[in-house]
Specification:
The complex is a heterodimer of chains A (331) and B (503). By secondary structure, chain A is mainly alpha-helical. Chain A contains 14 helices and two strands; from the N terminus they run ααααααβαααααβααα. Chain A has a two-stranded antiparallel ribbon with strand order 1-2. The chains are: A mainly alpha (331), B alpha/beta (503).
Chain lengths: 331, 503
C-alpha cells in the first residue's frame, strides 16, 4: 500500500512537470534567469535584495493591471484606459482626503469610481457594440483629461497618515512583504484560482474562444463583459491609490503607458491576443520578465528614450511569440 | 498516355496520426476525378498538400512529368493549381471584375485601368455564359454566382488544375446545375478537375473516376460509369449502409404536447402554427432562407416574437435569451458548428460540459472530479473519437465535433431539442451514428425538431415534416406520405401559380 501511494504521487509530479513544459512556461522561466544573469553581470548592484524589492514594488502596480488585462484578453477584449483610471483615482483620492474625508471612505468612493469606469467601458462595448479598443482609447483620453482638470494640473499632497500606511506597512513585519507587494500577490492568487477553478473563469475562456457559441450555450456576454471591465476598473483604481500612498502625492500625469506594460506582460506570459487562451500564472511570469528587464535598463542608466524603444521591441517580440504559438495550435 | 498530375507514394504524418499512407494515382487532362471518403479519410489533407498548405512527409508530386514542390499556397497557385473552397475567398465590396483580376489587374501608368478591366472581365463572363455584370459588387450577387466568380478567377490565372472542396454545400439545386455546366466546360478545355464532395449523386452526375480513401489509405479507384453508390459507400466505410433509415429503431410512443406555437409572427416568419409532442421527431424542410433556422431561433429565445404566443409544457413560454430557453428545457444545436457551436481552441472537456456547467459546480467552483467523470461518460456514450478529453476540439473531425455538441445538449436532459443541419459536412459513417442518436433521444421522450437540407434524411428520420416557404408553413406531411417530390413542390412552387391553376 505505501509504495503505491508514493508511485501515485510520483506520477502526479511528472504530470505537473509535463504540464509546465507543455504550457511553454519553462521557456519563460529560462528567459527570466537569462535576463537576471545578464544584468547581474553588467551591474553588480542588480542582484541584491534591495533591488529585488525594487523590482517587486514597481511590479506591484503593473501586476494589478496585468491581471485585469489578462482576464480581458482571455475574454477577447482589451482595455487601454487603466493608466488614466489609475491616475484619476490617485488624484481623486488625494483631493477627497484634502476635503476632509477619512481614509476608508476615500478608498470606498475611489473603488466605486473605478467600477463606474468599468461599467462605462462595458456599456459602450455591449450596448452600442463599439469596438473595445476604440472605446477604451476614448475613456483613456477623457479620464486623463479629468485627472488634470480636478487637480488643476498640479500634484496633490496627501497628509492622511492612515492612508499613507497603505504604501509602506509590512505584512507580519516581513521586510520585503510590503502591502503593495502583498496585495499584488494576493490578486494574482485570487484571480488565478477564479480563472482556473470557477464557473465564471470557465465562461471567460469560452467567451474569448467563441462568443457566439458562448451566447448560444446560455452564457450572458453582457454580464461577462461588464464584470471583466469592472474588475479592470477597480484594480486600476486600487493600483492608483496604492501608488499615491507610496508617493505621498496624487499626480495627474502618473501612470501613462501603464496599460501598455500590463498588456505586454500578459502577452509575454502566453495570454493570446486573439482570446480564449492563457493563464494568470503565465501572466505572472510575463510580469516578472518585463519588470526585471525594465529595472535592468534603469540600473544601467539607459536613457529613457531608449527605454521606450526597448519596451516597444519587447512587445513586438511577445506578439511574435504569440503568433508562433497560435500557428502551432492550428497545425 | 502519361497523366498530367501524378501523386507518387504520398504519405503525411502528424504527431501520432498517419493522415495519408502511400497514396499513388494520376489524373489526366480533361478528366474530373472525385475524392470520396469519410471525414478524416485524408481527402482534405491530400488537397492541402496539393495546394501547398501542408508539405508531405514523403513521396512526390509530378505535374507534366516534372517533380514539383510547394512550400506555400502561393507557389502552388503559380504552378497553376487553384482550389475553390466552400467558404468563398472574395472581397465582397469589390466588383466582379476586380475579384476576377485580383492580384493581376490591367494597369495603365501605375493605375488600374478600369475600362480595360471590365472589358476583359466581360469576355470571361461571356465565355462562361453567365448573367452577371463585371462592375457589380460581389456582395450583391448570389452565393452561386460568387462561386462562379471564384472559378473565373482561377480560370483567369490560367490554372491547369482546379480543385473543388465541397462546392455545393450552400447552393440550391438550380445553382448546382449552373456550377456543373461550368465544371464540365473546364473539363472540355482540358483542365484537370478534382472534386471533393459528400454528395454521392453529384459524383455520379459529374465525375469520370472516383478515388476512394479510407483512414488515409487509397481503397480503390473506380470508373464512375462502372460502379454504384452502394459499392462506393461500402468501400468508404467498410460496411453496408444500403438502407440506413430502414434499420433505425424508431420511437413508437408519441407522448403529450411539449411545445405549441400559435400564430407566431416575427421579422422573418408569418403566422406559424404547430405542435410537437414528446418523443416525436418533426422535420423542418424548405429551401435555404425559407425560415427553418428562424423558427429555431424564435424557440431558443434568440429572435423576438412580434405577435402570437408559445406554450411549453402547458405554460406560457416567452424566452428572451438562450439561457431562459435552456432553463425551460429547450436546447439548440446550431447549424454552423464552428462559428456558433464550439469554442474550437478549447478542450473536448470544456466544450462538452458547457451547458450543464452550473450543475457541476459547488459554490461557483467547478468540481473537476465530477466534470472529469461526466466527460468520460459523454465520450463513451456518444462515441466521440478523441485521444483524450483535453484535446482541442479544432483537431477533431466534423462528425466528432457534432457529437461533442450533441453530448453537450443532451446532458441537460432537455424536453425539446432542435437540431439545425446536424449532419452537414459529416461523413456517411458518422451520419448514421447521429441518426441512431436522434432516434435514441426520441425514445427517451424528448421532442426533436430537425432541420435539414437533405430530403432523404428528413424523410428517413422525421415522424412528421413541416415544409416552409417564404417564412410560412406550407404543408404538414406524415412520413408515410412524404416523398421528395411532394416536399419539393410545396417548397418551390409559388402560391399565385397554383392559385391560377385552380382558377
Amino acid at each position: 500500500m505505501p509504495t503505491e501511494t508514493v508511485e501515485k504521487k510520483d506520477s502526479k509530479f511528472n504530470l505537473d512537470i509535463k504540464k509546465i513544459m507543455k504550457s511553454g512556461n519553462i521557456g519563460l522561466i529560462i528567459a527570466i534567469f537569462a535576463i537576471v544573469l545578464v544584468f547581474s553581470i553588467l551591474n553588480t548592484n542588480y542582484f541584491t535584495s534591495r533591488n529585488l524589492i525594487n523590482i517587486l514594488t514597481s511590479a506591484s502596480l503593473t501586476g494589478l493591471i496585468c491581471v485585469g488585462e489578462s482576464l480581458l484578453l482571455i475574454g477577447g477584449y482589451m482595455d487601454l484606459s487603466p493608466g488614466s483610471t489609475a491616475a484619476f483615482a490617485g488624484v481623486a483620492a488625494a483631493l477627497l482626503m484634502k476635503a476632509g474625508y477619512s481614509a476608508p471612505i476615500t478608498v470606498l468612493i475611489v473603488i466605486l469610481v473605478g467600477a463606474l469606469v468599468g461599467c462605462c467601458n462595458a456599456f459602450f462595448i455591449t450596448q452600442l457594440k463599439i469596438n473595445a479598443f476604440i472605446t477604451t482609447l476614448a475613456l483613456q483620453s477623457i479620464l486623463r483629461g479629468f485627472a488634470f482638470i480636478i487637480s488643476n494640473g498640479e500634484g496633490v499632497l496627501i497628509t492622511n497618515s492612515a492612508f499613507l500606511k497603505i504604501g509602506t506597512f509590512k505584512i507580519f513585519g516581513v521586510p520585503f512583504l510590503t502591502f503593495p507587494i502583498f496585495f499584488m500577490l494576493l490578486i494574482f492568487i485570487v484571480f488565478g484560482i477564479t480563472l482556473k477553478k470557477t464557473r465564471f473563469g470557465r465562461e471567460i475562456y469560452v467567451v474569448g474562444g467563441n462568443p457566439t457559441a458562448a451566447r448560444l450555450s446560455g452564457i450572458s456576454l453582457k454580464k461577462t463583459t461588464y464584470i471583466l471591465f469592472i474588475i479592470m476598473g477597480v484594480l486600476a483604481a486600487v493600483g492608483g491609490m496604492i501608488l499615491v500612498a507610496r508617493m505621498n502625492t496624487g499626480q495627474p500625469q502618473a501612470c501613462s503607458g501603464l496599460e501598455f506594460d500590463g498588456i505586454t506582460a500578459a502577452i509575454l506570459g502566453g495570454v493570446a491576443l486573439s482570446g480564449g487562451i492563457g493563464s494568470i500564472s503565465g501572466a505572472f511570469i510575463g510580469l516578472l520578465i518585463l519588470q526585471c528587464f525594465n529595472n535592468g535598463l534603469i540600473m544601467l542608466n539607459v536613457q529613457s528614450f531608449w527605454q521606450n524603444v526597448a519596451k516597444g521591441t519587447l512587445l513586438l517580440l511577445a506578439l511574435s511569440f504569440d503568433y508562433l504559438r497560435s500557428r502551432r495550435r492550428v497545425k | 498516355m502519361s497523366e498530367y498530375l501524378r501523386f507518387e507514394k504520398i504519405s503525411m504524418e502528424f504527431p501520432g496520426v498517419k493522415a495519408l499512407e502511400d497514396i499513388s494515382f494520376g489524373v489526366n487532362k480533361g478528366e474530373i476525378v472525385a475524392f470520396l471518403g469519410e471525414n478524416g479519410a485524408g481527402k482534405s489533407t491530400l488537397l492541402k498538400i496539393l495546394n501547398g498548405d501542408y508539405h508531405q512527409t514523403s513521396g512526390e508530386i509530378f505535374i507534366d512529368d516534372k517533380e514539383v514542390e510547394f512550400n506555400s499556397p502561393n507557389e502552388a497557385i503559380k504552378a497553376g493549381i487553384s482550389v475553390i473552397y466552400q467558404e468563398r475567398q472574395l472581397a465582397p465590396y469589390l466588383s466582379v471584375a476586380e475579384n476576377i483580376f485580383m492580384g493581376n489587374p490591367p494597369v495603365k501608368g501605375g493605375f488600374i485601368d478600369f475600362k480595360d478591366l471590365n472589358k476583359k472581365a466581360k469576355v470571361i463572363i461571356d465565355e462562361f455564359d453567365l448573367p452577371i455584370e463585371p462592375d457589380e459588387q460581389v456582395r450583391n450577387i448570389s452565393v452561386a454566382y460568387q462561386q462562379m466568380v471564384e472559378i473565373m478567377k482561377a480560370y483567369n490565372r490560367k490554372s491547369r488544375i482546379i480543385c473543388f472542396d465541397e462546392p455545393t454545400a450552400s447552393l440550391t439545386d438550380s445553382e448546382i446545375k449552373i456550377l456543373f455546366k461550368i465544371i464540365k466546360k473546364l473539363k472540355d478545355e482540358g483542365k484537370v478537375v478534382i472534386y471533393v464532395s459528400h454528395r454521392i449523386n453529384e459524383i455520379f452526375e459529374l465525375t469520370d473516376r472516383v478515388v476512394v480513401l479510407k483512414d488515409g489509405k487509397l481503397m480503390d479507384i473506380k470508373n464512375t460509369g462502372e460502379t454504384n453508390a452502394k459499392e462506393l459507400i461500402k468501400l468508404m466505410v467498410g460496411r453496408d449502409l444500403g438502407d440506413v433509415f430502414d434499420s433505425l429503431s424508431r420511437n413508437e410512443k408519441i407522448g403529450p404536447t411539449v411545445l405549441e406555437l400559435k400564430g407566431v409572427n416575427t421579422k422573418y416568419l408569418e403566422d406559424i402554427n404547430f405542435q410537437i409532442h414528446a418523443g416525436e421527431v418533426v422535420g423542418l424542410a424548405g429551401l435555404v432562407g425559407a425560415g427553418r433556422t428562424e423558427i429555431a431561433r424564435v424557440i431558443f429565445g434568440i429572435d423576438p416574437i412580434k405577435s402570437g404566443s408559445m406554450v411549453l409544457d402547458g405554460k406560457p413560454y416567452v424566452p428572451k435569451s438562450p439561457r431562459q430557453a435552456m432553463n425551460r428545457g429547450v436546447a439548440l444545436c446550431p447549424e454552423d458548428r464552428k462559428m456558433e457551436g464550439l469554442a474550437l481552441i478549447r478542450s473536448v472537456r470544456e466544450n462538452t460540459s458547457l451547458a450543464i456547467l452550473g450543475s457541476l459546480c459547488k459554490a461557483g467552483f467547478v468540481d473537476s472530479k465530477r466534470e472529469f467523470s461526466f466527460t468520460k461518460k459523454a465520450i463513451k456514450n456518444f462515441n466521440i473519437k478523441t485521444p483524450h478529453m483535453e484535446q482541442e476540439v479544432i483537431n477533431l473531425s466534423g462528425g466528432n465535433q457534432q457529437k461533442v455538441i450533441l453530448a453537450r445538449w443532451m446532458s441537460m436532459n432537455p424536453k425539446l431539442i432542435i437540431l439545425d443541419e446536424p449532419t452537414k459536412g459529416i461523413d456517411v459513417g458518422a451520419k448514421s451514428e447521429i441518426y441512431d442518436m436522434i432516434c435514441e433521444v426520441a425514445k427517451q421522450g424528448v421532442a426533436v425538431i430537425m432541420i435539414s437540407s437533405e430530403l432523404p434524411e428528413i424523410i428517413g428520420i422525421s415522424d412528421r415534416i413541416l415544409v416552409l416557404k417564404d417564412g410560412r408553413i406550407k404543408a404538414n406531411i406524415l412520413r408515410k406520405e412524404a416523398t421528395e417530390q411532394n416536399i419539393l413542390s410545396f417548397a418551390m412552387i409559388d402560391d399565385h401559380k397554383s392559385a391560377e391553376e385552380g382558377v
